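Friendly challenge for the regulars: who can give me the structure tokens for this chain first? No prize, just bragging rights.
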Amino acid sequence: MSKIINFYKLDFKSDLFIIFDDISLDFGKIRYRDK
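First reply, four minutes later:
Bragging rights claimed.
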């Protein structure tokens, strides 16, 4: 089973993204990464 990765733009003025590795969008699995 492949993981579904969703990308959410935090701020249009920045390159930070919130990356959810789990479709359940569990906050414990949130990682911050530069674009």
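Strands lie at 6-9, 16-20, 30-34. The first strand starts at residue 6 and ends at 9. Your move, everyone else.
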